[in-house]
UniProtKB/TrEMBL annotation, chain A:
Residues 36-167 form the Beta-ketoacyl synthase-like N-terminal domain. It comes from the Bacteria. It holds the Pfam family Ketoacyl-synt_2. The lineage of its organism: Bacteria, Pseudomonadati, Bacteroidota, Chitinophagia, Chitinophagales. InterPro entries: Ketoacyl_synth_N (IPR014030), Thiolase-like (IPR016039). This is 3-oxoacyl-(Acyl-carrier-protein) synthase. It comes from Chitinophaga eiseniae. Gene3D superfamilies: 3.40.47.10. GO terms for molecular function: acyltransferase activity.
TrEMBL record, chain B:
This is Acyl carrier protein. It comes from Chitinophaga varians. InterPro entries: ACP-like_sf, PP-bd_ACP. NCBIfam families: PRK09184.1. Residues 1-83 form the Carrier domain. Pfam families: PP-binding.
Length: 338, 85
């Protein structure tokens, strides 16, 4: 697995990296050197989300030790915003004539998948899910079904970018906090809105654990626009043996009551939030899954990433990840140590 | 003609984002595709757009495009042939 995120998560001993924080309400990705991953002649044409998506996918394959990658299944809420914005701007600027083909091609959601397949010469099933806060989760569900049907492995991931224009549009409809917020104090500043983020996360999934397996996904549930009672009932299904809860809490007072269901149902079970690390975006749940798998694999919690906690939880064996996207798409996952 | 070729080289580098290439690295007669600059089919479309935007020349016939985009020299010759006398 691999992640490019606002934190230093891509290479090296990621859990020893310092916490990256912001007071601009936007957490931007820490980009690695792409040259070891992407040929220069291809790199020149790519915008940011294509570079982070492709590089994370390739790093994830390297990390997995898998030689031949099977189906490639991804999720993205917005795809390449930079290309989409450029293409739309040029339609207006050049009166629908003389339009550059590159931003048009790359603005399609499945561009990253196509680039991955070209680079690894993958000719198996290839699909991108675009379902707002369920984009990654639908890719994950599809991957699980492919594995159940006998696929040897799947490359499953998500990618998202934020642009200045999109940040502005989303701020107009209340996605972000109106006042500048220190990301380290995100959970204390309960008010409408959250802080924005972006990132790419990829996993190589297999049906059975192998020598390089980091964690096992043993429970999965998606709920669309549920009531608080339905959330409680959903969380209850995964109650047994959970020793750590990862929540997608994001400081948004409008939807905090959903997370309070987890507080009430799991008294005494330690919790870790992750949105101050990733920021909020359509596929932030993929970062949550990466963090859960890292915590299980490394059997430690990077204390410096959680300055808002008095007590840092001990290593966990069974993690419940609960995340939702602005109260609409809710996901519950159980990850276990292997 | 020399001015036009120099200008074209700068415009090609900018349009195709050829980060490590300088205008003096591009030989007037070197092939733009395959060897030489190693451009591909998407680049050829980008160069067609460059001709349309910068020189107001629309290449209607794709077969004609192959000849025009052979080198900086062939592009400059084509542009010059379309300029009013």
């Amino acid at each position: 697995m691999a992640a490019i995120s606002p934190q230093s998560t891509f290479e090296g001993d990621v859990f020893s990296a310092p916490l990256v924080h912001t007071d601009s309400n936007l957490l931007t990705c820490m980009e690695p050197d792409y040259k070891p991953f992407i040929p220069a002649n291809s790199l020149r044409r790519m915008t940011r989300v294509l570079k982070i998506g492709l590089t994370t996918a390739l790093q994830s394959i390297r990390d997995s030790g898998v030689e031949a990658i099977g189906p490639i299944v991804t999720g993205t809420g917005k795809g390449s915003l930079q290309d989409t914005e450029k293409f739309i701007r040029e339609i207006e600027q050049y009166k629908e004539t003389a339009l550059n083909p590159t931003p048009f091609i790359q603005s399609t959601y499945n561009s990253v998948n196509g680039l991955i397949a070209l680079q690894v010469k993958g000719t198996a099933y290839n699909n991108t899910f675009v379902h707002r806060g369920f984009s990654f989760e639908n890719a994950l569900l599809d991957s699980m079904m492919l594995l159940a049907e006998g696929a040897p492995n799947t490359l499953t991931g998500a990618f998202e970018e934020m642009t200045a224009e999109h940040f502005y549009i989303k701020s107009r409809i209340g996605f972000w906090k109106p006042a500048a917020t220190d990301s380290r104090q995100l959970y204390e500043q309960l008010s409408p809105g959250s802080i924005a983020g972006e990132g790419a996360t990829f996993f190589v999934l297999t049906g059975k654990p192998g020598p390089d397996t980091k964690a096992a996904l043993t429970g999965f549930k998606m709920l669309y626009k549920p009531t608080a009672e339905k959330v409680a009932a959903g969380l209850s299904v995964f109650k047994d043996g959970v020793d750590l809860i990862l929540t997608g809490r994001n400081g948004d007072s409008r939807y905090e009551h959903f997370y309070q269901q987890a507080d009430a149902l799991f008294p005494g079970i330690p919790q870790l939030p992750f949105k101050h690390l990733s920021g909020e975006h359509d596929t932030a749940g993929a970062f949550g899954m990466w963090l859960a798998a890292q915590l299980l694999h490394r059997q430690q919690v990077p204390a410096q990433w959680f300055p808002m906690l008095k007590d840092i939880p001990a290593a966990a064996n069974r993690i419940l990840l609960y995340n939702h996207f602005y109260g609409e798409q809710h996901t519950m996952m159980v990850l276990e140590r292997v | 003609m020399e001015d036009l070729k120099s200008k074209l080289k700068v415009q090609i580098i900018e349009a195709l984002n050829l980060q490590d290439t300088k205008p003096e690295d591009i030989d007037d007669n070197a092939p733009l595709f395959g060897e030489g600059l190693g451009l591909d089919s998407i680049d050829s479309l980008e160069l067609m757009v460059l001709l349309e935007r910068q020189y107001h020349i629309k290449v209607e016939d794709p077969r004609e495009g192959r000849k025009i985009l052979q080198s900086v020299q062939s592009m400059a010759d084509f542009i010059q042939s379309k300029q009013p006398a």
